[in-house]
Design goal:
The structure is a homotetramer. Chain A contains 9 helices and 15 strands. With about 325 residues, chain A is an alpha/beta fold. The first copy, chain A, has a 9-stranded mixed sheet with strand order 14-13-12-11-7-10-9-8-15. Chains A and B meet through strand 7, strand 8, strand 9, strand 10 and strand 11 of A and strand 7, strand 8, strand 9, strand 10 and strand 11 of B.
Chain lengths: ~325, ~325, ~325, ~325
């Protein structure tokens, strides 16, 4: 049984606590929040869980195996570092840190302490993304050509981070997971329509190996909600629409093939458009899968899918995209 | 009655001939094409129209008021220049020319010859774009914030031009028309997935005045056909979906407002989501409207909506976007 | 403060208890269920509520103003009758009773006891139905021509009642509410595909005054879930799609008009197709509205919208439709 | 080469002429229409085709193999009878005749004359219906449970026939083709909203063998156009949406299965919801397939799919449904 302490019971913390409580492999022992009203709410729901207001009171407990950090991104680095130094396994809300430099330090400390460091990139554990991954691994899609995502809606403008950190972060994680993508260059553009605020619209292009390209369109000021990803590949193409209640993935037997090349002239292209398949997906909660994965990795000594190195890559992309956006699309070289 | 000669009876020429034949203000006198098979096809359809194989034979005729050029883009400059010098009014297929320098020379020659120079940007004459223009002019949308277009499908890969020239050209024209847009910078990215071919996917960002931004996503290798534009503005927002048979425009009473500002803290945002209106659009053919507009402008001595200067601006954007795309998004300053 | 006792804590009872607990005008004093496990669940959630296993123990309490009955339909008549005789106001789950004869007796008893009798036809209190009612009352739709409903999905087959009782009952209530419909005849057809079970597919036609007609298609064995009602009328028509998350109502400025009549020949028809309006609907829970309405009617001595007479009409339609269905569509005259 | 004479060049005749002209197995020799303006139009299009105003002038020609009848339904019987007696093969627009008695006489005459009698039920030759037929014949759907069709739109009200003759006729033909349906009873309801006109809304239920049921909802006064058929079956279910441009058929791996029966209690039901498949359909014109089938059947001496007996069955259903509708759903026994 993994004994867990949770720091932060604000927006996302309650979801994490609920899932760790319901997970048969874990116990929530103590929750820390500086706001007494939040702790009172927690205690009405879970009278068995202890509460503390000071992080130190949580970290120094010897009876905890793991610490879960669900606080604002600006505090992740310090809290995760202290938890690792205290010898705890650590799960951090996304993004792992504010800078890739900080992420690297956490990865190094986790290695040194021989503790597990994992980031809560929940999307990776959705049935839709899992199914696409299976299709790719089985060769059903062939060679990947591109990833093209639109993730827009009306509100909520974040206070301190731009829309890339809020929405494109999901695509960066999915890209890492699906394509093991080694992007060498990023170009991003965007704008803020509210004086004094960070960018509320942004467009990011990532250049990968072998002509692979990814593009992400994120927007807090769209009249409709769209969550749609197209994946282009040589054998089959995918449209993944996360707004759909049940038909989230459509698999197209479509593509462009090169006809037998005539050396004297340009290759002729053949367009192929066949059946569409909508696979049935299991109805499971992604967050429960994530929590379960964290516990099993601790128990079995395995490396989590979204480990510190994974989280560091995402932070590197956030950093590069934000830097390019500030320079009107100026390409930025990524060191990954 | 405007007496018209048409150069080129390939892909688009037949549509132009049909509309000039049916327009009550014009007569098609002669058609030129180097391919006898095309001319034979024309004569079966319109026995009354003369045919010639040599451009010169058409241009030297004294009985023509106007010349319509529907040949590959690489020939536009030379043919339009000769027609203007011969004293004809000229209608050119989009894009006007290959370079903005050439476009400028045509504009100057048209002024000197006091002849009309117009570009066939058909989209401008669709009921949908016309309605959006009316809504903007009437102040129904308020201040424009952004234009975000997705224009993707499977095939047809063009032989000589990239996907920006084929598809984004429509958005460049619509942007010119709707927003009188003075864009100062462009950043574009893209890739070719077929060796030896031009880019088949591209993403273009245009930076305008007062935080206005435009983004265009074009792709010849998408599994589904999408033609969708979102227009963000302060009062109402628009979704324009050209795939829809009748419900092409949706008008959203939605937006983000700033609450009364408290000098001590950040402005608070209010999200507004109201009714949606789908206006009924007239069922008219855009190309017939374009042809009729060309004839009326000649008759009344008026400047066409899509005149040479308009066409030159579009060419400038094509040029800048292609240049930026070759440099991985490197921003390019536009001189418009 | 209305003091409430609830009989039945099975499928729907928990929703009623939750809403009566949250309603500022009511207190849930006691809940009765024959199953101790259900009562234990209730007590974990609401330690302040008393529990009893025998109905009599609830009905004889002098401190209750109202009794809410959420038990199987076959028990409604007896329980409601006892509660009314005990001098309580009564809210009954739909349908009110198994036979219209029983419904009539309850209505009479409620009058005699001067107590309120209301049926929980929740759909009447949805924002969508409320908005359609407002549009009709304001004359926005003109004269009503028809109501055409499709309400189909896969499962759940009910054990004891046919699909009309499960699904068409909602349409019967909506028809009563929107059109104050006095139907004179019903014809219904249907079939059971599972041996020994009641009909799982049914089609009901109701004939009203002045050529008004209603049709209802219900099915437990459809591959997709559909909840779609079309309302035809002289000025505007409505499509009400309850599956849509936010755009539940579409208002069409469409119809058929008679041109000026020429006495010598048949009237000419003019088809009108104009704008479509999608009104924004408030996000309120229908059941909370229903509970609040029940409490206010008791406090103010008003007649509820879905009173006993309303419930009786619905039962009359269920009875007639089931009778016609057993005779392959044989029309049945309705005495309402 | 089949030499064809066509009677009637009004609404549908031009489509038939065009397809017989383009069919490599047939020649259109002569066309008959009482209206000279229609004949003039034909001659501009097809100068090689002869024209006559009198039917007799066409029927007495010895150089015709087949006669195609595209006139109002009230004239079908007499014209087809004369053509058969003149020894011609005959293709008649749907419906074959006004009464099943007439249809029977035509079938008998065709047998006597050893000539082919076929009805133009075009829908049978669409790629969508063909594909569904293949799926059924291959056992992919299992046992058929029901056919449920909605076929509604705004206009055009027919002058002389009710909406069943205009729209449900397509479903009657499809039912005949797909299920070889032997329906024993029909119940129909409907109404006319325009004084002096036939019914513009109708609902038809057909009862078949083994619990198979069909339902058809047709309407000339709907605010939206719907053409949607659901087919319920034991293995897979189909949704056939004819409005969709390319994705007309969706194949659902969904259904209801009976669990192992426990003799002591009611059978338990298992709900199954799996993948959805959207087959790619060839882009062929149904009418061209129909014309080609007619010619091949003449050449090879085969019986057409939509022969006289087929057409007679459709007329029997039209007759029965109209009779039941006049009696408010009173069931009518079908003698087929």
């Amino acid at each position: 049984m993994i004994r867990v302490g949770v720091i932060g019971y604000g927006y996302w913390g309650p979801n994490l606590v609920r899932n760790f409580v319901e997970c048969p492999d874990s116990d929530v022992v103590v929750v820390c929040d500086s706001n007494p009203a939040r702790l009172a709410l927690l205690q009405r729901r879970y009278p068995q869980v202890e509460v503390v207001q000071e992080v130190e009171a949580l970290l120094q407990r010897a009876d905890l195996d793991a610490v879960v950090i669900a606080t604002p991104a600006s505090t992740h680095f310090e809290l995760a570092m202290r938890a690792l130094k205290a010898g705890k396994h650590v799960l951090v809300e996304k993004p792992l840190t504010e800078t890739s430099e900080q992420a690297q330090q956490l990865v190094a400390m986790a290695r040194q302490q021989q503790r597990l460091l994992m980031v809560d990139h929940t999307f990776i554990f959705t049935p839709a993304v899992q199914r696409i991954k299976q299709l790719m691994d089985a060769g059903e899609l062939g060679d990947a050509y591109y990833y093209d995502s639109v993730r827009v809606n009306l509100g909520l403008f974040q206070q301190d981070v731009n829309v890339i950190h809020d929405l494109a972060v999901h695509d960066f994680a999915i890209l890492n997971y699906l394509f093991d993508a080694e992007f060498h260059t990023v170009s991003a553009s965007g704008v803020s329509h509210v004086p004094g605020r960070a960018e509320n619209m942004a467009f990011v292009t990532l250049y990968g190996k072998d002509r692979f390209i990814a593009h992400i369109n994120v927007n807090w000021m769209a009249p409709v909600k769209v969550r749609r990803v197209m994946i282009g590949a040589s054998r089959r193409m995918v449209v993944y629409d996360d707004i759909e209640a049940t038909e989230k993935i459509r698999l197209y037997d479509a593509g462009v093939d090169l006809a037998d090349e005539d050396p004297k002239q340009q290759a002729k292209l053949l367009y192929r458009m066949g059946d569409v398949l909508i696979p049935n997906l299991p109805a499971v909660e992604a967050l429960a899968q994530m929590v379960s994965h964290f516990c099993r990795c601790i128990q079995d000594g395995q490396t989590p899918v979204t480990d510190g190195v994974f989280g560091q890559r995402v932070v590197t992309l956030l950093e590069g995209a934000t830097q390019s956006m500030a320079a009107h699309g100026q390409p930025v070289t990524l060191r990954t």
